[in-house]
Amino acid sequence: MKNHSNFSAPALAIAAVAAFAFLSACGQREPDTRMQSFSWPTMGTVAEFTMRADGVTAERAQKLAANAFRLVETNLSVFVADSAVSRLNRGETIRLASDSPLANVARFARETAEASGDAFDPTVNPLMRAWGFRGGTPSIPSATTLSNALESVGWRRLSIGNAASGEIVISAGGAELDFGAIAKGYAVDLAYDRLVANGFTDFLINLGGNIRVCGSPESGRKDWNVAVRDPSGRRPPSPLPRPLRSGEAVATSGSYERFVEIDGRRYSHIIDPRTGIPVDNGLGSVSVIAPTAMEADAYSTTLFVLGREAGAAFLSTHHACTAVFIGQ
Length: 328
Ligand code: AMP
Ligand code: MG
Prior knowledge:
By secondary structure, the protein is an alpha+beta fold. It has eight helices and 16 strands. The strands form five sheets. Strands 1-2-6-7-10-15-16 form a seven-stranded antiparallel beta sheet, with helices on both faces. Strand 11 (about 260) and strand 12 (about 265-270) form a beta hairpin. It is globular, with a radius of gyration of 19 Å. It binds adenosine monophosphate and magnesium ion. The site of adenosine monophosphate has 20 residues, from helix 8.
């Protein structure tokens, strides 16, 4: 039995590398000799940073991106014992700056949960555990285990209140927070914003399939072509319906990258919080093009749970996004 677990779990490197390799940019007709590429493990996955610049400039930019990822991991990982999220999960109430990583991610997770009609839920961790995604031997949970886990899931417990002077007060309300479906997208945006603020351009960031581009891949060309891996692995990667323009992001959620195997059957790491069962709706993956990587990340997970039909209704209220549904 295999257990490909989640965000920040150390065992994930291999699955993540596969996702990243197939989602790499293919924008250059002729390779630009000034294109510099870096890849390194972070946040339980693999980061790739590609930049059209001289070596020294690209290295400075890469360090800035790596620092942004570290900051997000320190704040949001459930595997870091004194991270803000771990403290919330231990029942603490925390006061923090309203533009801090946790505040941004928690607010957007709540907003997405509400808009998705409970398909997206940052408190699914007890269900992940029940199915064996957090260690132990994966097995089909008993009805009692499942209903106990379902009882402790619910994003409405997450409370975010305004405090004085640009701060917020946040508590998990007894729920167990895990921002694995959104934190990597936020980390990409944080890195992107810091790079742009420091004058860097012409780069692509890819954090485990969460991609955002800036500038252009070669002179005289505005767009970046990005291909999406075929979830079955039987067909070649397919290009997105349109290239990415500077500033845009794309993320992919799929059942193929992380799963548990029980009695020869694969169960997806994305669980429907309304039923407690891993998603099995015929989809292999969903990619979302969006103005920011956090939106792309949150919405690709959401659409994977909703499926094509309910997903189309969700998209009709999110005009800035384009989705690609691929069957198994
Ligand atoms: P992603 O790869 O961005 O689609 O995120 C998947 C991860 O988010 C899983 O590994 C879980 O940690 C978590 N997750 C699973 N199901 C859900 C869900 N319905 N809503 C929010 N997060 C989820
Ligand atoms: Mg996601």
